[in-house]
Amino acid sequence: MRWIREELESRAVTKWAGRRVTCYDVTDSTNIQAKADAENGAEHGSLVIADMQTAGRGRSGKSWSSPPGANVYFTLILKPRLAPEKAFMLTPVMALAVAEGISRSCGIEPRIKWPNDIVMDGKKVCGILAEMSAEKGSVRYVVIGVGINVGQQDFPAEIADVATCLRKECGRDVSRQELVLEIMRAFEEYYEIFAESEDLSGLTERYNGLLVNIGRRVRVLDPAGEYEGKAKGVDERGRLLVETEDGSIRQVYAGEVSVRGIYGYV
Ligand code: BTN
Fold this sequence. Notes:
SH3 type barrels, seven-stranded mixed sheet, five-stranded antiparallel sheet, 12 strands, 27% helix, 29% strand
């Protein structure tokens, strides 16, 4: 993996995103490593990347299948000057960057399933897990972990019917380095738009343009009570606007809430 680090660092065209790279052949989880690096003074924009994870983590306490040789597992370390309640909006910024990076390196535009799954042909190709440390009303760091199925063909039984990979969707091999470089380039661009307003107002149009749920009936899996409605898009804080039976609009915060299509995953 050392050559990947050298290639990523030498070919980066960004000012800060992914300019410093730490690579592992095997690690427990790039999110765990990134948090340790952030605690030990890693700079804003440092990237931790691995060929394989032994304890890859997903949302809601699930694990993330992380076999070697085929996929991309990375975590970007951010040290923004930002109030903690605004930090969750960095996840949709990354979702947009991953979608753009895939589009630039595969020539096919994926869609986003709210809040932060990247889907192709109705199946999940990427998941994102952000974690934050904050104190005294400000963010110390945010780590954004991204797992992309690039060449993995076989998936664990419980996700086999909802997961896919880029190789299958694009019909050819996709360079992992190229993909990461394009994502970093897009992330830096979108992050700077986000940072101007400290919300997603400059990005909602782009996000809603990629949102697979838009105009569809969804089931909101809210631990406080599930309900159904029609997804109208996200607002400037990344909340999904869902129109319920009585015509009222509910704002759905990501957190532990996710949505399902009425007939399946999307
Ligand atoms: C999800 O459940 O959709 C989020 C999956 C996030 C997986 C990535 S792989 C790189 C980083 N390290 C981890 O342990 N998790 C994230």
